[in-house]
Write a structure and sequence with these properties.
single chain, 270 residues, alpha/beta, Rossmann fold, 2 domains, seven-stranded mixed beta sheet, two-stranded antiparallel ribbon, 7 helices, 31% helix, binds S-adenosylmethionine
């Protein structure tokens, strides 16, 4: 029920007063909104492993939102959103990164699949924009591994509440036949099972420094110029290990680095 259809008697004096004020302001094309100051924590600073991290609640007004007009994306996103921990904005960006590597040689690799949401989005995008590419989805299906003191929150074993069957069923429902699921620690157990000699796009969503660093060590020699590594968790205060790793990679000068506030870091091979 919206406020217009509420019985007048159920409105408080404050609600009636603000409604009247908004009606008045509306005649001149204005409205007032109440800002709750106590909820706003402007800046948070952390020290971790002798590194400093700053976090701020950033509000972006009037943002171009192409996902709203993208009917096909909206439909598949509705079907997979209960299978992902990744928000709409990063989900959309993943699909668009597949478009960006259409002409870059190689397959698509995701490490950190959980219940398959982002993996299925990548495979669906590949079917449209990179049909010759195979999509490799790798997970322990037993949770996060290799957490160390570099990681601010994870200790190991998180996100074990999934299975290969859950992902396989989701992929089947979408009619995807371009996926191979690999179970085990990547790259230790499953790297050798990937037959592709080149990777065009690698989505790294493993939450902790050491796992991500070993994935990068495996994938980097397989990337042609223009190939992309996209890191989930870059900027989460709960995943400072990922932020540290990406910032270290940036220092090497081998990558074009993009940070666009959605908690993805994108590294493009120069
Ligand atoms: C945050 S979840 C992935 C979320 C997923 N992309 C989604 O759409 O919601 C992180 C996953 O990484 C997996 N993982 C972490 N380190 C790994 C490694 N070295 N090899 C394979 N899987 C790993 C965990 O088992 C967990 O399922």
């Amino acid at each position: 029920m919206n406020s217009e259809s509420q019985p007048v008697s159920s409105l408080t004096i404050r609600e009636r007063a603000s409604g009247a004020l908004n009606t008045f302001l509306g005649w001149f094309g204005y409205a007032f909104i109440r800002v709750v100051k106590s909820d706003y924590v402007p800046i948070r600073l952390y020290e971790h492993e002798r590194l400093s991290f700053a976090y701020e609640d950033v509000k972006c007004d009037d943002v171009l939102a192409p996902w709203i007009l993208d009917q096909a994306f909206q439909e598949i996103h509705n079907r997979i959103e209960n299978h992902t921990l990744v928000d709409l904005f990063r989900c959309y960006e993943l699909t668009q990164l597949v478009r960006e590597v259409t002409h870059v040689p190689g397959d698509i690799l995701e490490v950190g699949v959980w219940r398959g949401g982002t993996g299925v989005l990548l495979a669906d995008a590949a079917r449209k924009w990179k049909p010759q590419a195979h999509v490799w989805l790798c997970d322990t299906f037993a949770g996060v591994v290799k957490a160390t003191s570099r990681d601010s929150q994870y200790t190991g074993g998180e996100h074990a509440d999934t299975s290969e069957d859950i992902v396989r069923t989701l992929a089947l429902a979408e009619g995807l036949d371009n996926i191979t699921l690999l179970k085990g620690v990547f790259p230790d157990d499953t790297g050798a099972e990937i037959s592709a000699s080149q990777i065009a796009l690698c989505h790294i969503d493993v939450d902790v420094y050491q796992s991500a660093a070993e994935i990068v060590a495996w994938v980097a020699p397989r990337l042609a110029p223009g190939a992309i590594m996209v890191f989930d968790d870059y900027g989460f205060s709960s995943c400072r290990g990922i932020t540290q790793l990406v910032d270290e990679l940036r220092e090497t000068g081998e990558w074009i680095y993009i940070y666009n506030l959605n908690k993805h870091a994108i590294l493009i091979k120069r």
